Amino acid sequence: MDYWEHKPTPFLIQFTEDFGIRYYGLAYILGFLIGAWLLNRYFKGGRSAYDQNQQTDLFIALIIGVIAGGRVGYFLFYTPHLIFSQPWKIFFIWEGGMASHGGFIGATAATWYIARKNNASFWLTADLVCSLAPAGLLLGRIANFLNGELWGKVSYVSWAVLFSTAPDGGTLPRHPSQLYQAFLEGFVLLAYSQIRIWKTPVLKQHPGLLAGEFLIGYSILRITGEQFREPDAALTLGMSRGTTLSLLMAIAGTMILVKARKRSTTKEST
Q1: Closest CA to 139 of 5, 12, 2
Q2: Of 262, 29, 241, whose CA–CA distance to 139 is shortest?
Q3: Could you tell me the CA-to-CA distances from 90 to 27, 69, 144, 147 in Å, in that order?
Q4: How far apart are CA 248 and CA 258, in angstroms?
Q5: pLDDT at 270 over 60
Q6: How does pLDDT run across 92-146, given as a tens digit for each residue?
Q7: Which distant-in-sequence residues (6+ apart) come within 8 Å of 3 by Cβ?
Q8: Residues 83, 76: contact at Cβ < 8 Å?
Q9: What is the model's pTM?
Q10: 178 touches 141 (CB < 8 A)
Q11: What's the rounded Cα separation, in Å, for the pair 125 and 219?
Q12: What is the DSSP letter of 94?
């Protein structure tokens, strides 16, 4: 069978050997722009109390939190040996290397800071922020595919792809797992969160519930996608690093969901 051969490049437009417009950078920029647009729509639609000035503060904090958290998370979760051997590499963001779980931690810290600064509900702010994340996840996974990184396991399905950057040099067909994850973690979660925000009273009646649902949903979809992806780090108890971290996230999401329901029940009873 003739499989499509993917010869990836990290650049949309390349000026020199190491400088150009990178897909990964574009994914982050577009992800933040879509998030900013959504947050503004929430304000105009009465779903958010954050005005334009507060939205700007929130996004500056989120940009810093996501990038710093994602970079630190990558070093801690996937390349801990570099912390002592080449710690300065943490600032070389143009070389790639971001951990989505670390980005979530950084985004949580940014959410807490902005909510406290504006004397707003942390849980309601977290609900809003979680609904913005899938757009960035979708674009980030597409960038992973274009870059030819985080490729899938060997497979002989008709839509398998030959990745020239894989260890086999593109001789074995593989699942385009990056696109699977773009659909699951990105499109599915984005559609779900938007339906919840615009078609249900979840923000007003159950602050924190959507955040818990997001963490659980992301974990389930990430673990599903991991089944088709070649592990990019040592296995833990027979599971990939992404699966292990997602299980911990699912536990946290379940705790948040249960507490959100308890808060709603207490409020209704009073």
Answers
A1: 12
A2: 29
A3: 20, 11, 19, 20
A4: 16
A5: no
A6: 766 667 889 999 999 999 999 999 999 999 999 999 999 999 999 999 999 999 9
A7: 160, 161, 162, 173
A8: yes
A9: 0.91
A10: yes
A11: 21
A12: G
